[in-house]
Automatic annotation (TrEMBL):
UniProt KW keywords: Flavoprotein, FMN, Monooxygenase, Oxidoreductase
Record's signal peptide: none
Descriptive protein name: Nitrilotriacetate monooxygenase
Molecular function GO terms recorded: monooxygenase activity; oxidoreductase activity, acting on paired donors, with incorporation or reduction of molecular oxygen
Length: 143
């Protein structure tokens, strides 16, 4: 294939046969290539930086705006941040974007407790007591 040629169906079949673990990602990429009638070169350019995920370029404030919009308008309840350069870009996100989100009340400033259950506001389940025979001292213990 030449760089300007469109992605043919046999590429879809070959990609689909390679692995079971990434079938949905391959399907999304191939659907995008077909819908937008991308050439191999165009597809590569679109995928190279963000690996098929959304890629954002802008200010810290603009990124916070986008995240807020997704949360408020589309019900997004979490984000997977995949910075291209680690640890630098992740530190930059934590140092500059998180404080903006915190100031808007969109990101916690402290944890409510010390366990995941506490953070999620879940009640502690009742304890199921049962008797177990201690074979060493022949006494009964409650677990």
């Amino acid at each position: 294939m030449k760089p300007g040629e469109r992605v043919p169906d046999y590429v879809v079949a070959l990609l689909g046969l390679r692995t079971e673990t990434s079938k949905s990602r391959v399907q999304l990429i191939m659907d995008m290539a077909r819908k937008d009638k991308l050439s191999i070169l165009e597809l590569g350019r679109r995928l190279i930086g963000a690996r098929g995920h959304m890629q954002f370029v802008g200010t810290y404030e603009q990124l916070a705006d986008l995240m807020q919009q997704w949360f408020e308008e589309y019900g997004c309840d979490g984000f997977n941040i995949m910075p291209p350069v680690l640890p630098g870009d992740l530190n930059e996100f934590v140092d500059y974007v998180v404080p903006i989100l915190q100031a808007r009340g969109l990101f916690r400033t402290e944890y409510t407790g010390s366990t995941l259950r506490d953070h999620l506001g879940l009640d502690r389940p009742g304890i199921n007591h049962f008797q177990k025979e201690n074979t060493i001292g022949k006494t009964s213990i409650t677990i």
